[in-house]
Amino acid sequence: MDTNRFVIEVKKTPAKTDAKTRIENFNEIYADFKPTQASHQASRCAQCGVPFCQHGCPLSNNIPDWLRLTAEGRPQEAWELSAATSTLPEICGRICPQDRLCEGSCVLEQSGWQNVTIGSVERYLGDMAFENGWIEPIVPEVERSQSIGIIGAGPAGIAAADRLRTQGYKVTIYDRYDRAGGLLVYGIPSFKLEKHVVARRTDRLAASGVEYVMNTDIGADDHLTFEELREKHDAVLIATGVYKTRRLSVPGCGSKGVVAALDYLITANKVGFGDQIEDFANGRLNAEGKHVVVIGGGDTAMDCVRTATRQGAKSVTCVYRRDRANMPGSDREVSNAEEEGVRFEWLSAPKAVLGDADTVTGLKIQRMRLTTPDAQGRQGIEDIHGNEADLPADLIIEALGFEPENLPVLFNEPKLEVSRWGTLKVMAGEFATTVKGVFAAGDIVRGASLVVWAVREGQDAAADIHHYLQTELLVPANANGEPSSYALGAAE
What are the pLDDT digits (tens) for 380-395? Predict the structure, then answer.
């Protein structure tokens, strides 16, 4: 099939379960493309001389090339090209905000022809690769004696482990939770990413020789210390993500009826696995039969409101201080939430939590308006004096964003330097921290961000670690028995 068929082939997305049906369960709402659908949609690609879609992708995926191969009926070759730049293509195809990345940059979208459904084709290729056995355990060309310890089994850690194991290193992943996957398992609801999709990736790493050490909080009492971890491995990668929740600071915010988004989502996902969670059973982290208010405008807020509808909430309202056009979350997720009955209170900020220390009865909101844009084009917000409203609420969920934990204190490693935002400092253009042999990648370096950026940084950090270890071996030590400064390269 030829490409450049956008003039005769209209944009079609995969089938989506209707809202009334999908809120009855936590299944993914989008179906996979059928082969004919995938090839037809891929054939719409204009094969631009300058592929803006590729520039819009944090992974710089070779999108036009694997779209062409898909259109030509060569899916295995297309998948191989997709996998060359991404260790988690079928996951990114599901959860990336393509409308803000590759698809939003598509030349067809910019010229009024509607974008190519890049994410759906990427997901289709990844799923087909697993179904047809194209994805097998990693068998390195050479086995190396050096080992790497990775702290965090989330997307950055998984991506790095994949690349490092491919290079032949011994890899051990440590994580504080009982299941591998990090936010892919416990932070993102199943209606966006079913957990078997993550498990087949983490299981593949296990089958490839990657060791998982779960339920291990580095630096915590009765757990492995950071110093012990460094002694055990030739290099360490910190890929913990950011899990410290930003909290409300309005009157009444200390009520037990106000909960953190991550606590709520982790509980919902654990219940989905069949775990017995006391705070769900007693109703504290369960939206069933309640008026739920979620404060925030990012994708985490959308995950919360859409989870609440599925738990049988009486009503679900999202409060955000700016308007829809300035919302940081994916517009696709907002649309899905609206279809599922979520009400949005735009240009509204929390002013006070109503109720008492044990229960909440509502949220007082302050109406806002946008101000004149600043030099960067960002509009500020200001109160509309005297314009307030009370929203009924039995459960208030804070989805205000995340901050890094204080790792130098938690790890008892004061040499780990942090930025003024609390993220770990790394060398410019590299992933080496201020501690020799210790690297960092993902949200713990860049702050709360997208999964696709975590994948990119995990892969790039793996390349830095490989270079560091190989340089250490090749260059002789100096008079003090330490590798020369040239040998350390990215490490110092």
Answer: 899 999 999 999 999 9
